[in-house]
Design goal:
Shape: elongated
CATH superfamily of the domain at 1-41: YefM-like domain
Number of strands: 3
CATH class of the domain at 1-41: Alpha Beta
Helix content: 25-40%
Strand order of the largest sheet: 1-2-3
Structural class: alpha+beta
CATH topology of the domain at 1-41: YefM-like fold
Radius of gyration: 26 Å
CATH architecture of the domain at 1-41: 3-Layer(aba) Sandwich
Distance between the termini: 59 Å
Oligomer: single chain
Number of helices: 3
Order of helices and strands: EHHEEH
Strand content: 15-25%
Largest sheet: 3 strands, mixed
Length: about 80
Amino acid sequence: MRTVNIDAAKTDLSRLVDDAAGGEEIIIARAGRPVARLVPLEGSAPRASRRLGRLAGQFTVPADFDGPLPTDLLDAFERR
């Protein structure tokens, strides 16, 4: 957590918002006294990057995965 004077915050607001969006909490002070807190919104923190192929070799997809469903299962989906 870092503290920034309000005059510096006005000058660097865009950078401070980017830092807060990245997960940092910033205190804004006036005359050395904390008056506001800049924090990221929930869910706005950057997500971890996804790695392609992470499950490679752990399962196999059957050749008929897109074939017609069995009648009993199709009836259950269609509530017949």
